[in-house]
Protein 1
Amino acid sequence: MTLTVYYDGSCPLCRAEINTIREVAPEGALTFIDCSVPGFDDAAAHHEGVSQENMMQALHVRDSAGHWFKGVDAFVQLYGYGGLAQLSRLWAHPVIYPVMTRIYPWVVRNRYWLSSLGLPAATDALIRFNARRAQRNSRLCENGECSLEER
């Protein structure tokens, strides 16, 4: 299964996060579409009532079954498909999820300003840390057996 990710390529924070995920994600798991380009029109999305304006107000992803996810739910899916299971579980955690749901609209409204504060570098570091950890943990589990002592 693949996930199609619609992101704001004009936003330095968004672009940095997507570029990092693109580097660490399993090959073929994600397809990225910059919805910020002038004249952007995804006929399938438009037919389903998802416009460029909607996509610019929150991250949107669509799975290969045609299900749409936006905002925090989109990040849960993106991180999961992108091989970042710990980040996916963190964002979906029953305590964290409502907090992120409240914070995310503020982040979207202020994403260009937040980009100027160095948040793209911090996000890059967090994603790379989680990717290295996931890779290390997958090497520790072979043939269905995990060596907990080495974790």
Protein 2
Amino acid sequence: MMTELLLSLAGFAFVTSITPGPNNLMLMASGANYGFRRTVPHMLGVAGGFTLMVALVGVGLMRLFEAFPILHLVLKSGCVLYLLHLAWKIATAAAPGEGRAAGRPMRLVEAALFQWVNPKAWAMALSAVTLYAPGGSLVAVLAVAAVFGAVNLPSVSVWVALGQGVRRVLAAPGRLRIFNAAMAVLLVLSVLPML
């Protein structure tokens, strides 16, 4: 993988992993409710489950792209459009809810399985494989999965560590708007090199 493409992929992985979404909001709430140490299995489930998802999606997409090459362009276009929509949603998002999680933090296997029903995870996996492993080679797919594996865990850990403090900061409307606008712009910028 060329250095420029690898840096672009790392930026894409960082921005998509660190921006608000179901995983990060659940991890933030878990960190606030249960602390960092008790939330570690949840974090490992998100990072490991997503890395596996990227690899499996990539392996499956390789065969589809070989059989139907036009699907690559269609999927790439759809992913870019969805990510632009996601950037808009991030830029205009409201403060996270005040509800408290009941009982216990999510377990490792539960968090790993959650990736398969998380629309942001699907968009991230499909976009990453489509944009950064365009030839569909196994090496490229595994490289994309490895970069996400390396970037995802530290990114989601930030949400757990900040926990309740981040919730207070983001509750201020002005700060929330600035944060969300910055994350939306970074998400759009991470896609531009692939266009």
Protein 3
Amino acid sequence: MKKIIILLSVVVLLFVATPISSIYAYQGGLLDNKPMGIGTGTGLGTGKTTTITDNDPNTYFELARSEGTFTDNDTLWYEFDCSKNITGYRLKADSSNPAIYLRKADNTFIELQHAKKDESYVSIDYKDITAVSIQTLGAKSKIYELDVFGTDGSNCEAKPEIGNRAILVVTMMTGLEKEYDLSMDEVNAFLNWYEAKSNGVGSAKFAIDKHDNNKGPFSSRKDYVIFDKILTFEVSEYTTK
């Protein structure tokens, strides 16, 4: 009996020693699981990656420059579907070399040079931002995670009273079916993650909010599905009033 108690104590200590906030600290932002384009400071490339938006602070993308000149992977960028009012960001990097750039609707840029790199939330206030990018100003920079937070800008269409939703049914390799009632934004985030992971990019797991299926004294509950355990999935769209 004493051995069992000691073993349980060790498990509890290991759990307590791992800060929950550091595991999935980036979810809920505007870049959450979004594929970022890979390019240079002078042009946009065709590659994409979710390595720095996958909510996993252990994966990274290395930005590099050669003797101060642009290379094919010194910049990652994402263009919003409509302008956003950016109120904050989080960044985890291995140096102070990266600079975050916010592109305004008039195609001018706001540079957040030597952005804070320790994952803490940094409050900012910039209106009508149409794109965000990160670039290394030094030879190399490892970017582990980046997310920005905010709301729709002035040129976003008002959300209709009737919104599209969908039932997402994920069938696992075991034959187990998992069903979720989600907004189309959530469904599209899942589809973007699955497509990126199919190309070998991004986290092996994806968090799905259980919403009204939340049972117990919890503020939220998420179901984590594993990519290589998924057999197939189905999306059935519907509208609600």
Protein 4
Amino acid sequence: MKRSEKKDFVSNLKNEISKASSIIVAEYSGLTVNESEDLRKQMRENGAKFKVTKNRLTKLAINETQFKDISDLFKGPTAIAYSSDPVAPAKVAVDFEKKLEKFKIVGGGYNGEKIDKDKIDFLAKLPSLDELRGKLIGLISAPAQKIVSIAIEPGSQIARLLNAKSSNSQESN
């Protein structure tokens, strides 16, 4: 990689990471190409990015971001997963780690704070932003549905009463 390419890479990575609210650092040694592509695909589907990068270049990129405190995690063959959704990379990485022994989470960062494996496991158990949005919409729409059913109920009672009266009068004839 030429010097100008390295500068561009560091600059682009710094811009992407500075927008992220969480970053996961993992050792990936021994992953096959198919396993690596599967992990990338799962990350993309969940709104996160997964990159295998050179440690030196990654340290340069994160040095000017809120994640500068995690630079000591970059030893050996490491990869990063990051997203603006704080839960997405943690969920995918933890699930992937359970499936493959070759993939090991080393640590990470959350809103500028260095976090360990236990905190990453905790993040992975939280609902994602999309799940929270769905629950919020459900909570907001539930009172409206109740109001509509209450407003409709008196009319329904009158209709049932009239139907019962007409059925009784037809039976008596």
